[in-house]
């Protein structure tokens, strides 16, 4: 029998976990323009490069925790070859089977932060800004190889849990709207629908045990 309480904790109460730590450091000035600056939200490596945080991609309803460890994923991919921002987004999407697509607003600030830390070097190649690992970045990847093995598969699983949380929130909202109908005329039907959904979920669990 699986630990269903653990699944519940992961869905509703789990802390923001993931290898690689946080993606940004404050208090340091960005060099040679970097990926951000003042303006309309379009940075040197693409739209959205001026917004967001170092960790995570898209966020769920209510500003939930970020999906996936963008920092670690970037370093793992750059260990293979230099890449530009769009290439990183595409590779993460493909390697996670389409389950995780980080936004430009998470990729570009993380690249800038990694450059500030001395792990990544940003250069212009054929008119495009491309990122590659420094010696320090290669040492970091080598020292965390076991920790980040299967990072894209793990991120795909985290994405699925995030989608499930979103559906649970939407279901609760729909039930609240039904409950507010004057006279409670829809309540009996809603109860039947929810009860059937609960039974089907338990059948799904039973098939896995």
UniProtKB/TrEMBL annotation:
Q: What is this protein called?
A: PadR family transcriptional regulator
Q: Which residues form the Transcription regulator PadR N-terminal domain?
A: 74-139
Quote the biased-composition stretches of kind Basic and acidic residues, using this chain's numbering. Answer: 1-16
Query: What PANTHER family does the record point to?
Result: TRANSCRIPTION REGULATOR, PADR-LIKE FAMILY, TRANSCRIPTIONAL REGULATOR YQJI
| Spans annotated as Disordered | 1-68
Pfam families xrefs: PadR (PF03551)
The UniProt entry, under Gene3D superfamilies, shows: Winged helix-like DNA-binding domain superfamily/Winged helix DNA-binding domain
In terms of InterPro entries, this protein maps to:
Tscrpt_reg_PadR_N, WH-like_DNA-bd_sf, WH_DNA-bd_sf
From which organism does this entry originate? Demequina capsici
Give start-end positions of Gly residues composition bias.
34-51
């Amino acid at each position: 029998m699986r630990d269903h309480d653990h699944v519940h904790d992961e869905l509703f109460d789990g802390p923001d976990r993931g290898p690689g730590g946080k993606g940004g450091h404050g208090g340091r000035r960005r060099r040679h323009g970097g990926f951000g600056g003042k303006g309309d939200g379009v940075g040197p490596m693409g739209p959205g490069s001026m917004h967001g945080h170092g960790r995570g991609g898209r966020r769920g309803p209510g500003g939930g925790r970020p999906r996936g460890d963008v920092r670690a994923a970037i370093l793992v991919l750059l260990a293979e070859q230099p890449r530009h921002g769009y290439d990183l987004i595409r590779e993460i999407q493909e390697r996670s089977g389409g389950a995780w697509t980080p936004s430009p607003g998470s990729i570009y600030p993380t690249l800038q932060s990694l450059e500030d830390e001395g792990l990544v070097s940003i250069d212009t190649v054929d008119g495009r800004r491309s990122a590659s690992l420094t010696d320090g970045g290669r040492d970091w990847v080598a020292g965390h190889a076991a920790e980040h093995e299967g990072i894209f598969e793990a991120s795909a699983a985290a994405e699925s849990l995030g989608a499930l949380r979103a559906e649970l929130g939407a279901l609760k909202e729909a039930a609240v709207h039904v409950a507010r109908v004057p006279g409670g005329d829809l309540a009996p039907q809603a109860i039947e629908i929810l009860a059937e959904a609960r039974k089907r979920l338990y059948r799904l669990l039973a098939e896995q045990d």
